[in-house]
Amino acid sequence: MPYVLLACAIGSEIVATSALKYSEGFTRLWPSLITGVGYLLAFFLLSLTLKSLSVGTAYAIWSGVGTAVIAAVGMVFMGEAMTAAKIAGIALIIGGVVLLNLGGAAH
Fold this sequence. Notes:
Blueprint: H1 2-22, H2 29-49, H3 55-77, H4 84-105
């Protein structure tokens, strides 16, 4: 169950960050509201996740996956340049999250 909550927290953060792009500095009502509600929900769900998972593991997954997906969303849906450096950066983020999780499993 904690990983389901974490996945929902990540999804909420991705929606909020995507809406932030369209809020135009919080000058547009609906994207601004989606951003605020999305981040509140993301942090609430992350806090529930921390009842069962270590903070290092949960935050590594939450921030790493969120960053990688938002970078991909920017390139695929928002017209941002897709460069080899960006793709390599996403791969390194994912690799780092995997390594942190593998290292966290051994106590």
